[in-house]
Amino acid sequence: MKLWGCKIFTGIAGSTIDFGEVEFADGKITKVSALHKDAIVPEFSKEVIDARGKFVMPGMIDCECHLVQDAGPSAFTRIWNGTLTESMFNTMRSAERYLRRGFTTVRDCGDKQYETVFLRDKINEKKARGPRIICCGMFIRVTKGHATGWEVDGPYEARKAAREDLSHKIDWVKIVVESSSVIKTQHEAGALQMLPDEIEAICTVAHNYGKQVAAHVHTERGIVSALTCGVRTIEHCTALTPIVVNMLKEKDAYGITTFTPYARMAVDTSGITSPGMHEYCDRVMETKSRYFADAIKNGANLAFGTDAGAPLTYHGDSGYELACIMKYGMIDAEHALEFVTTKAARALQLDDSLGELQPGYVADIKVINGDPTKDIYVCDDVAYVFKEGELVCVDNQLLDVNNRPLWDREILTEVTKPIPEKA
Q: Minimal CA–CA distance to 109: which of 65, 141, 148?
């Protein structure tokens, strides 16, 4: 299979090919090369696709999402109080939408009752359509703490919960170190919910199983505690202070961006967001924006994540999060695209085979109508998606496992937009 005449982002800023071709076979990329401007146009077919005027890049990777949630009002509470049937349907619908938008890998950072594990296996068996799912299973939290899932008090219960969680064949462990409302002022760190001995106990068990740990945490104090105890990724990572930046580099750990829910809820006028949440999201965005550009300048390990499933944060949308990364990080589009490709692959320790377009890598490829280096929002206008070399989406239309058009389960473009399109 060949994509001919396209602009190619390989996954590395500065190495973009303005006019080139990508070849792949048996699920792997075999060739990525530039073409002469006067190159002879080949005869196009099912195996040689005319990609002139299109932008080709690695399949996108979202490091932080919740497939079980639906991005509606009170998404978390409503779904967790709903039926397992409803949560399974939401999980399948969210996964399909991700693939249609060119995300070929996602990490689900907390489900209701291991729905994502079931769907991951069905996708791997080619009995369902969806991205490659990295499953965290159920949250581990302290008693009455933020979120839901396994409840622990003390290191002994923490170890037991980690073993219970891992028995469900999850890929990562997700813990809740702090509440989502711990940032009370721009200077106040907030109280830890999960103590260091509990975090360390969970990390020890996970590492013994060959797994890594992700932590929900915002403040410097919480981030330092999590990284010291062995956590690999910091979800939200709001307080990117110099201390945090240095620890991320020292520990080879990653902060996950998740601008979208906070940026959107901070300006929401639809009534979905309560006044208290408006105020909270304003504080989060003030803190994120204060530190983010300096963190990038100083080489912080950071990767793309949306927290999709949270209110107003739709599965598969990439343009808004990338626009925020560009705006608050003061970087161009190519460097922002690294966050959702190479950097995301490194964060999830998948960079030996995913996140780049180069020979030998898995042929996860997104083909975009337009050029996101000129308008980042065209990332959501998808021409083709290939997963492991197989064509799975054409013009935002997902194909089923027999390459037939799959029934549209939802309209990709929302009928009403309660927030501005641009970040």
A: 65
Dist. CA 99–CA 390, nearest whole Å:
12
Token pair for 386: 């290939």
418 has a pLDDT exceeding 50: no
Q: How far is 223 from 288, CA to CA, in rounded Å?
A: 14
Mean pLDDT, the chain, whole residue set: 91
Average pLDDT over residues 17-37: 97
Q: What is the pLDDT of residues 251-291, one digit of tens each?
A: 999 999 999 999 999 998 888 887 888 888 999 999 999 99
Output 394-400 pairs: Cβ under 8 A, ≥24 positions apart.
396/100, 396/101, 397/100, 398/96, 398/99, 398/100, 398/129, 399/129, 400/129
Task: Give Cα 25 to chain centroid, integer Å.
Answer: 27
DSSP string, 374-394: T-GGGGG-EEEEEETTEEEEE
Q: Buried (b) or exposed (e) across 256-283, using 16+ Cβ within 10 A?
A: bbbbbbbbbbbbbeeebbeeebeebbeb
How would DSSP label each residue in 309-376?
TBTT--TT--HHHHHHHHHHHT--HHHHHHHTTHHHHHHTT-TTTSSS-STTSB--EEEEES-TTT-G
Contact (Cβ atoms closer than 8 angstroms) between residue 246 and residue 223: no
**Rounded distance, CA 53 to CA 104, Å?**
22
For the cut 70, the answer to whether the pLDDT of residue 190 exceeds it is no
Report strand pairing: 150-152 vs 139-142: parallel
| Long-range contacts (CB closer than 8 Å, 24 or more residues apart) made by 401-405 | 401/126, 401/127, 401/128, 401/129
Beta carbons within 8 Å of 210's beta carbon, 6+ residues apart? none
Residue with the two structure tokens 């070929």: 104
Percentage with pLDDT > 90 across the chain: 80
Helix residue ranges, H only, 129-274: 155-166, 196-208, 220-229, 242-251, 260-267
Q: Are 104 and 61 in contact (CB under 8 A)?
A: yes
Q: Give the closest residue to 114 by CA, choosing from 139, 96, 93, 143.
A: 139
